[in-house]
Write a structure and sequence with these properties.
661 residues, 7-stranded mixed sheet, 21 helices, binds flavin-adenine dinucleotide
């Protein structure tokens, strides 16, 4: 079987641009390329528009294919002659035909009309399957549309209908295009018109809606007809284009195998708040061909490296605008109108390309309805918290414990512990038990049990050698595991950060409770840890300060909330502090990671873990029955048992995370 150098899945915009760049750099002579495309692609199904500096390479390389290029822009009635920027328009059929000519030019390209069904990562390459046929390729560029799962609320859609209109009378100034004319009824959404004149007698006139409901056909027709009422003479509709573009920050679909690269919409190159992606695809194609020339495969997660700082400010602006379009789409008209009236069109293009300066952006926000954006900040913050219990449950628990102390001091401790014990059996123990199902992904059950027991035996040996060694090892690997789970949860998969955060959180959990920690140590025969009060306070403050700086540096809100929670937990008992963190943050995150990795429902997870949970309850009752009088003695046995159980759990969870890299 032929092992291709490259396989392109889909030959739409992104992969056509990739092929063009490979051709322009003279690389296609030496490469065997497989292309799988499920459609015939002889339709003019899209009109690609984009803007850029007139010296940008996209204009030089695509100019012969462009249908039209403009320098004058009308943004909602404000006309501007742009000095440096250009707005270009390309019909998809022109691109498809050009790409097909390339395909015919190179005998080493095999274009197959077939639909990809699956991939399989193999040592000698990626196996690409379509029904019963299998091909092999060294690198795959996958442009199938993404399956989007919006974490909160409905998905915002950009839906549009465009008519290519021809008139006998000259009706348009072909040097000027109209972008976002809001002088149409809004129907409770954000709705506007585009007019892209090709010559005085012909233009593409488009009605667009931003909102969670698609613009219905009849309404689109009504808007287009009434917009065209002002034309001189009759008109003919010579072509119709319709489309729906998801406006989301959650389009990215990465394959665990770094040799399979997501392209176009699947690679999240479409700007969520505009729906434009063509120019970014062009730039991305250049980047990828550059990597190919240098024979490098981009690493998706720099596990050992310092991760990128968190979300950028443009991501945050997009997030706010999307929240408004999701829940208050009727506000769009005012926001966009004010935006375009206050700033130059070239400046706005720079902003949309995420190249604006902070100063420019502050000036822009000063002209916008700021209360609406403040609402979006608050509302999206609460929506963000709500999506994952690990983001709010620990804080809710500590506030509940504090409230109980203030109102029912004598019952506060038992009620808080009761809640935590209930949650321990609901998700704490089950989350630990479910790693066992990892064996289904490759390891046979006996081998899995053997490995699990061997790791537990190593831990028991530590404790047998010396309780100090056992305890230290337990603290070290738990710190690593808690740090790793939190960092994964916060989108910062880095070993360095995991270790640093694990250490900080153990300091914040244990140091404020040194007397209780010493009590547990003494029952285990471990000498007391003596630290002066001053040193305890200073260490605690330094750890909190480092944690806060880290959370701000990586712009991570859940990280910041976690530090605030840990600081409040310092005032609670050790059991409540540790239980709250362990169950409501750590186990809740681990539960969520397992749920996603295995695509289980909550009920399926709970039922699968039930035998282990029942076993744990039985063990708890048996031990308690034997040693009813000494809770502290019992808790030291329990700690040893827990530490033995934890290490294999950590090992199998780490393997699960690494598989996802
Ligand atoms: C109507 C419309 C107009 C748009 N206009 C603009 C614009 O003006 N400017 C702009 O910047 N962006 C625009 N966009 C957004 C975006 O740029 C386009 O959607 C662009 O085509 C996305 O490129 P892509 O390569 O990700 O996907 P596509 O161009 O859709 O290509 C994907 C290809 O994969 C094929 N395929 C799918 N499944 C399989 C399978 N299982 N096996 C094999 N092949 C498969 C499809 O047939 C298709 O040819 C528009 C989108 C739409 C829908």
């Amino acid at each position: 079987m032929m092992n291709y150098d490259l396989a392109l899945i889909g030959l739409g915009a992104s992969n056509s641009l990739l092929l063009l760049d490979l051709h322009e750099r003279g690389l296609l002579q030496d490469l065997n390329v497989l292309i799988l495309e499920s459609q015939s692609k002889w339709k003019n199904d899209k009109t690609y528009c984009f803007w850029g500096h007139h010296q940008d390479p996209i204009f030089n390389s695509l100019r012969p294919l462009l249908l039209k290029e403009w320098t004058k822009l009308d943004f909602n009635g404000e006309v501007e002659q742009m000095r440096h920027m250009r707005y270009g328009m390309l019909e998809s059929i022109t691109l498809y035909e050009h790409t097909k000519e390339l395909v015919l030019q190179y005998p080493s390209i095999n274009l197959v009309r077939a639909s990809l069904t699956s991939f399989k990562s193999e040592a000698e390459g990626v196996a690409v399957y379509s029904d019963n046929t299998k091909w092999m390729a060294q690198r795959v560029y996958d442009s199938r549309p993404p399956q989007i799962k919006e974490p909160t609320g409905p998905l915002v859609l950009q839906s549009f209908t465009g008519w290519r209109v021809k008139t006998d009378w000259p009706n348009w100034d072909p040097s000027k295009l109209v972008l976002m004319d809001f002088n149409i009824p809004q129907n409770g959404f954000t709705q506007f018109m585009y007019v892209l004149p090709i010559n005085p007698h012909e233009a593409l006139v488009e009605v667009t809606r931003f909102g969670s409901e698609v613009l219905p056909d009849e309404l689109a027709t009504t808007h287009l007809k009434s917009y065209l009422l002002g034309l001189e003479g009759p008109y003919d509709v010579v072509h119709e284009e319709q489309g729906v573009i998801p406006m989301t920050q959650h389009a990215l679909q990465q394959h665990p195998d770094a040799r399979i690269i997501s392209m176009g919409a699947r690679g999240a190159v479409i700007k969520p708040t505009t729906g434009y992606g063509f120019k970014y695809m062009y730039d991305r194609a250049k980047e990828l061909v550059g990597e190919l020339e240098q024979q490098t495969v981009a690493r998706k997660h720099q596990f050992w490296n310092w991760p990128r700082t968190g979300i950028g400010r443009h991501y945050f602006y997009d997030h706010l605008l999307l929240h408004i379009l999701k829940y208050k789409p009727q506000w769009g008209k005012e926001i966009f109108t004010k935006l375009f009236t206050n700033r130059t069109h070239e400046g706005i293009f720079g902003f949309l390309d995420e190249k604006s300066t902070l100063r420019w952006e502050l000036g822009m926000f000063a002209g916008l309805p700021i209360m609406k954006f403040l609402w979006a900040v608050a509302a999206s913050f609460f929506a963000f918290l709500r999506t994952r219990p690990a983001r709010w449950a620990p804080m809710a628990m500590v506030l509940t414990a504090m409230g109980l102390e203030a109102t029912l001091p004598q019952y506060a401790q038992p009620i808080s512990l009761g809640i935590l014990v209930f949650m321990l059996f609901l998700i704490g123990i089950p989350h630990g038990a479910l790693d066992g199902y990892g064996h289904a992904n490759g390891m046979r059950l006996p081998k899995f049990i053997l490995r699990y027991s061997a790791i537990m035996a190593i831990v028991l040996l530590f404790w047998a050698a010396s309780p100090i060694v056992g305890l230290l090892a337990f603290i070290l690997y738990s710190a690593w595991h808690f740090g790793e789970t939190d960092m994964r949860e916060w989108g910062l998969p880095s070993a360095i950060l995991s270790v640093a955060w694990g250490t900080i959180l153990f300091v914040l959990l244990l140091l404020p409770h040194m007397s209780e920690v010493n009590l547990v140590l003494s029952t285990m025969g471990i000498p007391e840890v003596v630290i002066s009060e001053g040193a305890l306070v200073t260490t605690n403050r330094v750890a909190a300060a480092i944690g806060i700086v880290g959370s701000l540096w990586f712009a991570s809100v859940p990280w910041l909330i976690s530090i605030a929670t840990l600081l409040l937990l310092g005032e609670q008992s050790l059991a409540i502090a540790f239980g709250t963190y362990f169950i409501l943050q750590h186990s809740a995150s681990g539960w969520d990671h397992l749920k996603k990795a295995h695509q289980w429902s909550h009920l399926q997870m709970f039922m699968r873990a039930l035998p282990f949970t029942i076993g744990a309850i039985a063990l708890f009752l048996v031990i308690f029955q034997f040693d009813r009088n000494s809770l502290s003695q019992w808790s030291s046995y329990f700690l040893v048992f827990l530490s033995a159980l934890s290490l294999p759990h950590i090992y199998f969870m780490s393997r699960l995370y690494q598989k996802q890299d």
